Amino acid sequence: MSSTAQTRPPRDENTRFFGQPWALVHVFGVEMWERFSFYGMQGILLIYLYYSVTEGGLGIPQAVAGGIVGAYGGSVYLSTILGAWLADRLFGSERVLFVSAMVIVAGHLALALLPGLLGVGVGLILVALGSGGLKANATSVVGTLYAPEDVRRDAGFSLFYLGINLGAFLGPILTGILQSTLGFHYGFGLAAIGMTLGLVQYAFGRRALPDEARRVPNPLPAARYPMVAVVGLAAVAVIVVLVLLGVIRADNLAPIVIGVTVAAAIAYFAVILSSRRIDATERSRVWGFLPLFVTSVAFWSLYQQQFTVLTVYSDERLNRDLFGWEMPVSWVQSINPVFIIILSGVFAAIWTRLGKRQPSTPAKFGLSAIIMGVAFLLFLPFAGGGPNSTPLLAIVGILFVFTVAELLLSPVGLSVTTKLAPKVFHTQMVALFFLSVALGTAISGWLVGFYNPDDEVPYFSILGGIAILVGIGLLLSIKPVLKLMKDVR
To answer: Fewest CB atoms within 10 Å of the CB: 53, 75, 160, 421?
Structure first.
């Protein structure tokens, strides 16, 4: 341990940031601005793709546009693999996080300044790569702020999640105002400004993070650098060739991302479980993570439809009239963050107060899937209505249920992943959790093709029922899952 690390107060005595380590404020800040830019851009992205050219959009069919958004969202989380690998093998989490923030700024600038599909292609690729690198490593860096036995961990992750949702709340509101008054590219430009603020803030605060955040847990031998460079260039070349040959197209992006994500998840589990560098306890914990992974996929495939099916629903079916003024479509995406801002502190206080008596992670995950399924069933009373037939208050209520389900799974999932992770696969296990989000998000884009506004009952009832069954299955399996998790709850 360095002399700098030795002079710092013990982590359990460092409580200057709402009872949490002060260094959390720096990761809290960059993640907040990243989410501001991410959700601000995503709040207007789908309608930009399918609105007509006369309305400032690109005129892409809705089903194809939804697939693009789902594939892009899945790619964000899929790219956490690259960000995690770079952190674990080459640079450490903190350095990858810093560079990733720069890449995100470049992506938002491309969306704001480059015209048409060129801006969409360049911008979304850069934002996906940068956001993937930032997300996996921000979570990993937060994990380094706590000792393994620190009971504040779940509360700290909930506070970190509050920062995420402060940005997620403000982003769609402000970009929506600019999009509806000045045009789409002004909204994209505001997202770029927000991420730039996050980058500047983090650049000044990053030195306060613990040395462990910069540690490379499993360094790649220098002799293998050329091979890695060749593999990377070959992968890019293959993608370019497939695009030029028409194998990868806008209308099949979501199924391609689903296939790639499934293959990546299987490969990741296989690599970690077969590694000789993990012991029997760590291997058992990875097996215990598998049912949590499956439940997470089921949850996110419904939850992420906020940005696909629910956006279309809000544009065409929701009554957005507020005292004679029509609320921008993107504002619907700020409802969920409001509830998270309100409830995240409540959940953090509950987990802190209960301490070791709180429900286990598998119980929280199972309840989350069930509640998410119920949220989809709540759409059924409004099925078959015409334009402006769904009251805004109904969507507010449904998104409240979304939020309760989310707070039982997402911050808890981030926390338990850092506890179950083998030491040499710390960041890559976080990336494996995000792979479940990637798969669910890509599935949410693919499911847009099955949504029929004229026959909504089968869509919402079948998906809601599947999620409920997945949740019940996990609740019935709590004891064997906890046994595999080896004293991690």
So the answer is: 53
**Greater confidence, 248 or 176?**
176
Task: Read off the pLDDT of each residue in 42-67 and give the average, rounded to a whole number.
Answer: 84
CA-based torsion, 65, 70, 73, 78: positive or negative: negative
Identify any residues that bridge with 451 across adjacent strands, giving them in sequence order: none
Q: Per-residue pLDDT for 170 more than 70?
A: yes
Domain 15-485 belongs to what architecture?
Up-down Bundle (1.20)
| The token pair that represents 92 in the structure block | 């450490």
CA–CA gap between residue 359 and residue 338 (Å, rounded): 25
**pLDDT band at residue 108, thresholds of 50, 70 and 90?**
very high
126's CB contacts (< 8 A; 6+ apart) are 103, 104, 106, 107, 110
Average pLDDT, the chain: 83
The single-letter DSSP state of residue 326 is E
- Token pair, residue 219, equals 């360094």
pLDDT surpasses 60 at 1: no
For residues 272 and 278, the answer to whether their CB atoms sit within 8 Å is: yes
Structure tokens at 469: 């069954």
Which sequence spans correspond to the domains of the chain? 15-485
Q: Kind of pairing, strands 325-326 and 321-322?
A: antiparallel
Kindly give, in sequence order, each residue whose CB lies less than 8 Å from that of residue 250, ignoring residues fewer than 6 positions away: 60, 64, 67, 68
What separation in angstroms does the CA of 466 have from each of 37, 70, 306, 372, 471? 33, 20, 18, 10, 9
